[in-house]
Specification:
The chain has 104 residues and is an alpha+beta fold. The protein has one domain. Helices cover 25% and strands 20% of the residues. The chain is built from 3 helices and 5 strands. The strands form 2 sheets. The chain has a 3-stranded antiparallel beta sheet with strand order 1-2-5, with no helix packed on it. Strands 3-4 form a two-stranded antiparallel ribbon. Strand 3 and strand 4 form a beta hairpin.
Length: 104
């Protein structure tokens, strides 16, 4: 899963279960158990992270805080409309790998 915060791709994480946990005592009332796969190196200026347009190829991503399956056109229509002619999800994954590997 690619995490997007303030229109910047900030982390890639692996979901470790299918449970959404609730916590009404904290600022964020729900959370997931994840394993970080990629995040910017220590000391990196996060304002220099790629904008979602550069990372995803589209201007619009649903700003609702939910997990969206990139292969589902009913959830990610613009994303799929952009990436299908370019080779689909695999091409996107290769593109994102290049974008994130350029961060040092």
């Amino acid at each position: 899963m690619v995490l997007v915060q303030s229109a910047k791709a900030t982390h890639i994480v692996e979901l470790l279960d299918n449970v959404v946990y609730g916590n009404s005592e904290e600022e964020w009332s729900s959370y997931r158990i994840v394993k970080a796969i990629w995040m910017p190196p220590t000391g990196f200026d996060w304002s220099n992270l790629p904008h979602q347009k550069e990372a995803f190829g589209v201007d619009y991503l649903p700003p609702d805080g939910y997990v969206h399956n990139l292969s589902r056109t009913d959830q990610m229509f613009q994303f799929n409309q952009y990436w299908q002619p370019l080779g689909g999800l695999e091409s996107f994954q290769n593109h994102l790998k290049k974008v994130l590997s350029s961060i040092s």
